[in-house]
Here is the input.
Amino acid sequence: MNLDDISVWVLDSSSLIRTKEIVTVSNQWAAFKHLEEMVHAGQIAMPRQVINEMSEIAHPDLPGAWAPGMRSNLQHPLDVDFEDLGHVMQVASDVVDVNKSTEDADPYVLALAYGLQRQGTSTCIVSDDIVDRNRISIATACDRLTLNRVRVRDFLGHCGIATTKAKPADDN
Here is the structure.
């Protein structure tokens, strides 16, 4: 996959949280302003469930405040097509964390990317969810659905966002 060919990046909740972890505090404002410009340009999409997850953080920080602020600026649907969601659930229903007490955004992230791709848009999910535990990861679900996926650090680097924090050993 050539990152230059991607038209729309679909963010999951963990990608926003990871951005805060990867980008130094002094660069975070500029990073999220850049992401905001990408939202206005139609280059970033997020389903309503990601915004809701980010809003439910008890003490929202920059990503937790940023995501709800982008709600009215998103150029792509907040609500996924139910046929696309049905396809995701048919192929990768085990992406849902059954132990979660709130609605899981992951199937909606996948359905949004799947729907955009089905409509001919070159799409890529941004996620560091790569380990299958009590459920399959976004990475495994993307493989099953033949969706593009990229790690957060790679996405930020591609966007020209400085990721000056040291790369932890588990961020491979």
Observations:
- Strands lie at 8-11, 44-45, 123-126, 148-150.
- The helical segments are 13-22, 25-40, 48-55, 62-70, 82-92, 106-118, 138-145, 152-158.
- The chain has eight helices and four strands.
